Protein: Carbamoyl phosphate synthase small chain
Organism: Agromyces flavus
Amino acid sequence: MTETPNPIPADTGAVPVAVDLDRAVLVLEDGSRYEGRAYGARGRTFGEAVFATGMTGYQETLTDPSYAGQIVLMTAPHIGNTGMNDDDMESSKIWVAGFVVRDPSRVVSNFRSQRSLDDDLAEAGIVGISRIDTRAVTRHIRSLGAMRAGVFSGEDAWLSPGEQLELVQGGEQMAGRNLSGAVSTDELYSLDAVGERVGSVAVLDLGVKTSTLKYLAERGFDVHVLPQTVTADDVMALKPDALFFSNGPGDPGASDRHVELLRTTLREGLPYFGICFGNQLLGRALGFETYKLPFGHRGINQPVLDRETGRVEITAHNHGFAVAAPTDRVSDSAEGFGRVEVSHVGLNDNVVEGLNCLDIPAFSVQYHPESAAGPHDANYLFDRFRDMVIASKTTDDSQEAGE
């Protein structure tokens, strides 16, 4: 039976005498409807409905380009009390397609706050909804999987239920969707290394977060951020010491061009580190398939096992797809890159959360070690990347000296 904690009266076909512009409706593609109050901008918006389990860090979530095309529902009931500021932006704008909360804070009370969440949503044109039972919606999505959805507020909230559902069901599916072009930089830009310089890293921007670039620079890398349209020749022309693929939205199965770019650079011996979308693309480059998870992992409290150390890390996630690689053994790359092991697994569902290549300098993780927002358990991965690049450069220098 469809769960509707806020049932909407049946449509009578009558036009309301005085339209309540603060009315809002969340409509899922299976016909489930939840009535609440408008939050942020008024109008209509469509996307894939997903839930995020973090109790804090909503600003980092909203400005994470990986959430492009998604209507994000916060499972924590009270959102907005710390407001918004310029320092916690993970990109230049809010990327979510829509925002769903239960109890928006009526006041902002934090010394770092510069404005309210509601004001930022409205200014950015993000249509949201509040005052609905977000945990009931979460249970519904957990049972049936992430699905297309729409939020209707203002005058659009008074469209007939049938018309609203038709609009939702006419929206794009996330599977098969390539969103890299929507979130990537248009032009190359660079950050200088902080402290002792190790080398340079070419970052393919598939939706990169500001904190990621900062942590790379702090490890001694000159960071060159590249548009997603670049070719392998463009990358190698920079003569980087390493390559990094960022997080990002969309289906990794729809990014064949980026997979081929990665294969070419790996064959050139370029050390590689990838996170999130970059992990999925490494998996594909090595010859593994990817698949869509029922409702994905999103939040800052996901337990992951590092299989080498036996350590359990609490990590930040935002992914709806995963790599289909064997977790019970070391396997051989079907593309000729040697042996590959699954380095990390999710403890909630045994999903592949990391890949490590044993015969080439390449590894990746499915989660977000930049921890923005979230715990810092996985920040050491940036150190591991730095050490791998240094080791690779030392090997190259020794080989040249031997020649």
Notes: The domain at 180-394 is CATH 3.40.50.880 (Rossmann fold).
